[in-house]
Amino acid sequence: MSSSLPNSQCVNTCKSTQAKTIGIAGAGLLGRLLAWKLLQQGYKVTLFDRGSRAAELSAAKVAASMLAPYSEVVSAERKVFDWGRMALSWWPKELAALAQMTGQHVDFATDGSIVIAHDLDKSSLTNFEHQLREKVPDCAEYIECIERDRLAVLEPELAERYCGGLFLAEEGYLDNEALLHSLVLGITALGGVWCEYTEVERVTAGRIHLATQQHCFDVAIDSRGMGAQAQLPALRGVRGEVLWVHAPEVSLQRPVRLMHPRYKLYISPRSGQRYVIGATEIESESMQPVTVRSSLELLSALYSVHSGFAEATVLHAYAHCRPAMPDNLPIIHSEPGLLRVNGLYRHGYLLSPYVVESALKKLIDCNDLATEINH
Ligand SMILES: Cc1cc2nc3c(=O)[nH]c(=O)nc-3n(C[C@H](O)[C@H](O)[C@H](O)COP(=O)(O)OP(=O)(O)OC[C@H]3O[C@@H](n4cnc5c(N)ncnc54)[C@H](O)[C@@H]3O)c2cc1C
To answer: Which PANTHER family does the protein's record reference (predicted)?
Structure first.
């Protein structure tokens, strides 16, 4: 349900002499994480989203939420790896704090991931390994070229079909649906105010502009992802599609990537033998439902990994756009009364810990907020 706010020219939402007020436009991944962190530090936070608390309009809801700094750095700048590795220690702490407050557990694992290729595509895997080792020579101990017997220990069902692959020991995933839900509980428990089904037209210093009213805050944060495009013209969308399947005949513990000359399939496990299968990457801002072509490619590649997927049922098919800047790196722009964070591209779960911590630091420094909190 939408929280009702008074209809006037400028509504001083939550203005208080005790704590600074923060308005957040966009309650997807970044918006929720920032709200959670700011509320913990004593700020008063109001979130606005065009969708509901279920995050059905966010890229965050669609994501496979793999934490894959090694796999991703092959086609990204080294920074993505360094920032992304920070996530591996940041998430457990935040998830523990969330669980303590909400009583809800969010699945998180960093038991490694497996990269495989069919015999005919072995060169794709070899290239991938070379490029990876060149990018992160200092982390070679976490990149293991494995034979069938080691694969049989790590993922026994894959060893029936593959004679080896790569084991990336530090990679993992988290359960995005559980996280987004836990954040709702955590934010609500800390007194965060939700304005659901509320379209934000613009965000300026200290103001969140709706069609007929403005809401005033000490600081306004724009974390609308693709929805901020009008105010961030360089932002582009990179379409991605995922399928969720339930596969009772498959037991994979870790994320798996299949190297292929045309596409890279990944399989990210969820509880109850559910798997998120992704993801296409298309330079298009179309939000249309998943196409037949993508479904065919994803599902046939999936079946080639493990025949047990033949009897799987398709639970969901989701498409969304990843918000990306021209260099595919995040932006954190801060000025008095305003913070804009965006451009997480295909690395939202991987890079949000770094982005959130950096953004909070900038926001507090730039707005001289620190001294008035928790005193
Ligand atoms: C198919 C796919 C797979 C992915 N897989 C991974 C992965 O495995 N690992 C990983 O790290 N990342 C992954 N990502 C990337 C990740 O999902 C995004 O980087 C991340 O969600 C971006 O977070 P955000 O908060 O900026 O945007 P979002 O999560 O999209 O949130 C933006 C929010 O703003 C709201 N909003 C927008 N416009 C308005 C408006 N005008 N008024 C009010 N509200 C508005 C939206 O409703 C939404 O809730 C994937 C993305 C996709 C699409």
So the answer is: GLYCINE OXIDASE (PTHR13847:SF289), SARCOSINE DEHYDROGENASE-RELATED (PTHR13847)
